[in-house]
Design a protein that fits this description.
The chain is an alpha/beta fold and about 325 residues long. It is built from 14 helices and 5 strands.
Amino acid sequence: MATETIRVLMIEDNPQDVEIVRRMLGQYKRVNFDLDAASSGGDGLQKLSSNVYDLALLDYRLPDDDGLDFLASVKGDPDVPPIIMLTARGDERVAVQAMRLGAYDYFPKSYITSEILGQAIHQALEKYRLSEQLEGAEQVIFTLAATVEAKDPTTSNHVHRMARYAVELGQALSLDENQLRLLRYGAILHDIGKIGVSEAILRKPGPLTEVEWEEVRQHPLLGESVCGPLRFSHKVGPIIRHHHERWDGKGYADSLAGEEIPFLARIISVVDAFDAMTSDRPYRKALPRDEAVRRLSEGAGKQWDPDITHVFLNLVRRKGLGVREN
């Protein structure tokens, strides 16, 4: 079987260091390395834009900008390969900043050997390729979420309203940006498990039988499983699994009660109930907003977290949420 060839761009203004690294990579026997060099950050950017490299080795000190400036300039660019930062000597502060700016690894030059550098490149590539696969999985799963909504035309734009309500409620609860992002993902994906519920049940105009209800009650568990490949599944999974729990412990899938229910799942539970009440469903027409407010208020402390419910009801009254929006 042919040995893999990895194309590496070294952004380094010292030709001697380039040759040292070239010899090191030549001694690493597990793969072949094809090393190219750029003598400045600007030259590096030009080469990255016109050539395909698998990975870049980046010197911290460059004649134009330093390595951190370079990382900042390419952060988030999907066409830039993984980058490993190299420095003349160790500096933990530079290492921390480099990793925050997207570097896959960091090494003082005096520390690296042929084996260390070869393994670091290999591991960075594996991490990068896995990340690409997971990003592809995320796109598939978000597309599935739209497919689930399409199975039932009466839930048109449900997840979009859910995401907006959830984020507005999260902001009113002073959540940080990371929590708001997870809340939005949870709102979009909360019902993805309904991909496993038959359309006949989802569209049924009358009451469900106990057997049909049991099928519906499985959707949080299936949804959590479907979202397993997501990078953030360990944080979004509990939202999906527990968004039908009740404050009094009479919900599903695990009959959790009160603060046992994950906080973000409690938020989704409130906005999900409100949007369900104020939307047409196969078994009934949308309730008037005032009636939905009354039911939510009565259920605070029984079905829903009382504090979250009261904050949401204040939002409904103040911002006019619940007026039919398609």
